[in-house]
Amino acid sequence: MYYVKKTLEISSCHQLFLDYESKCENLHGHNWMINVYCRSRELDSNGMVCDFTEIKRLIHGRIDHLNLNEVLPFNPTAENIARWIVDTVPCCYKAEVWESRDNMACYERDDVED
Questions:
Q1: Among the listed residues 4, 9, 25, the one whose alpha carbon sits nearest the alpha carbon of residue 101
Q2: pLDDT value at position 113?
Q3: Cβ-Cβ contacts under 8 Å for 28 (sequence gap 6 or more)
Q4: Neighbours of 36 (CB within 10 A)
């Protein structure tokens, strides 16, 4: 099995729509740190699991320096963003989304076709 990890730093803002009162309901920003994990039993014709530049284009290119509420079709919690990354990047089985040094959400697909 081959594994790759791409780390991205993304600056963006969001507000959360919650069923309880929270300061996160106000528009606010983060300098997100995102780890994207991909794997494959076989390498592609270029000898890669997934091109690092393609991972950056798919994630950084879609959400950096933007209001996440305007570009993502879901409540942009760190958990939902992690799931979106796994669903968006080919061969991705896990994503960690750090909204601060102390707060991280992770989504890991447990049914990856190897």
A1: 9
A2: 56
A3: 13, 14, 15
A4: 27
pTM: 0.93
3-class SS of residue 106 = strand
77-94 average pLDDT score = 97
Q: In this structure, are residues 15 and 27 in contact, taking their beta carbons and an 8 Å threshold?
A: yes
The CB-side HSE value for 89 (13 A sphere, CA atoms) comes to 37
pLDDT at 111 over 90: no
Question: Which residues are within 8 A (CB) of 39 and not within 5 positions of it... i.e. 6 or more apart?
Answer: 1, 2, 3, 4, 49, 91, 93, 112, 114
Q: Which residues of 41-75 are buried (b: 16+ CB within 10 A; e: fewer)?
A: eeeeeeeebbebeebeebbeeebeeeebbeebeee
Closest to 30 (Cα-Cα) out of 87, 79, 68, 84: 68
DSSP helix/strand/coil, 21: coil
Q: What is the CA radius of gyration of the chain?
A: 15
Hey, what amino acid is at 48? M
Length of the chain: 114
